[in-house]
Amino acid sequence: MSQQDESPLIAQRRDKLARERARGNAYPNDFRRDALAAALHAAHGETDAVALADTPRRVRVAGRMMTRRVMGKAAFAHVQDGSGRIQVYVRREDVGAEAYAEFKDWDLGDVLGVEGVLFRTRTGELSVQVEHARLLAKSLRPLPEKFHGLTDQEACYRQRYLDLIVNPETRRVFELRSRSVEFIRRYLSARGYVEVETPMMQLIPGGAAARPFITHHNALDLDLYLRVAPELFLKRLVVGGIEKVFEINRNFRNEGLSTQHNPEFTMLEFYEAYADYRDLMDLTEDMLRELAVDLLGTSIVHYQGADYDLGRPFTRMTLEQAVLVHNPDISHAALGDLDAIRSLASGRGVVVKPEYGLGKLQLELFEKTVESHLRQPAFITAYPAEVSPLARRNDADPFVTDRFELFIAGRELA
Length: 414
What we know:
This protein has 414 residues and is of the alpha+beta class. The chain is 36% helix and 26% strand.
């Protein structure tokens, strides 16, 4: 729908709202529903028409009108609430001539409240035969055209409310995210971890190598930084005796924007005394596997056209091993020679800066030639100390650190 076409439609809807205001309360808040669409389908999806007629079930449902088909003195519509959609059937003889005329004047996108009895149509669809219908909220802007929905990615991000209205899969993502966070809390709490909240405004932006956002505290006349990670505070809690601690926290990094980077994001961070990075890899693998089964009923995750199996043991490789596996022409000796690795990196499109040392060049090679190919779950360990200032150096090989990153679908997830 073009912008030129939209303005007259909005003006028309505003006129309808003005008429509602003139009649009284245009936005009533006294309607109380007693059923959700999904619950009705779950409870009565298999009930036949005769059984529904023999034991009438009166319901009050509310939601946004997504479709409507008027056939003279009767009309069908679909009302969508937070759980899904249910069809409603409105007849002039049931609701009265005046109420039926009002219903026909309402627009797609309007929020309705209806009361009636469940029945099954001739085509077999569970529906509500409406006895009373009310307009609860007028939608001033038209919904996207029903056959195409909201498909523009930028519009989906900028108008998330519209994306949620017309794209059921988006709502499912929101629900799965909420359930994921709930599961993680349960999982860690069951293993003795204590959840905490640590400061978002800090004197020192520590815990990660990232550019911070700066804010100002007026009462203290003090510049503060929004946290880039909660690491330092969580480690202090371990020192203080909370031996297993975690935080699901909001972080802020004043850096680039991409499909994999956002200036503010939520992260889980956890620490445990008397454990090392290998213990935390075991816990991370088990947590993600159980999370998938809890949410999806299977360890197979389908994402962007591919299946990822969280049920199989995750691959574990050092960063050096990963570079050698995905670059058969590179030798172990070359990875340890500064001049050789400079030439190799440059030949693969890496911008080599004079200050880059051996560890930095190994990381650049990994990110350029390996990372995007790590499709199935893979832990990469032994990152060079040069690029891991906050990690413990390995006791046997101080060139690398006791650090892991987890990759799935070519992305770093942990």
